Description:
Elements: E1 9-15, H1 22-45, H2 50-71, E2 76-82, E3 85-92, E4 95-101, E5 107-109, E6 118-122, E7 125-129, H3 135-151
Antiparallel strand pairs: 1-2, 2-3, 3-4, 5-6, 6-7
Helix pairs in contact: 1-2
Amino acid sequence: MQRDLxxxxxxxxxxxxxxxxxxxLALAYGALCVLSFSVATVFLLMGVWQIxxxxxxxxxxxxxxxxxxxxxxxDHDHIVLSRGCLLVESRRAGVLRQTRLDxxxxxxxxxxxxxxxxILSAHPLHLEVGALAAxxxxxxIALELQAELLGGLYAP
Length: 156
């Protein structure tokens, strides 16, 4: 069976490991608000109104944290290698940035430390990808991408 090189395509998706779905996050936030304001209401009925002020302050901080988490829940790096094109898509806080590189001129630098990203270099561009993924996944993907690029099947 002959391989059709025009249809050859490899993809990698690098993203955070999310423990909660958006629905679960909203439910956790609602439960936390109900619990905190219930305690504050009990103290308010006892005449200690200051607790309500600190509960509102606490819930404001928690709201900021949950909003930040929700804005970055879909952050990811998507690498697509196809014939003649290495496409890198990075989504951060809802903003999508796409960069196209020449696979024949692109070099991959695997992470040297556990927190280091993958570096893609195609003069004059240097892209850092994979900062959201776990360290072992970054190393594995960098080695796979490097092997695919060195294989030469994707050159124009």
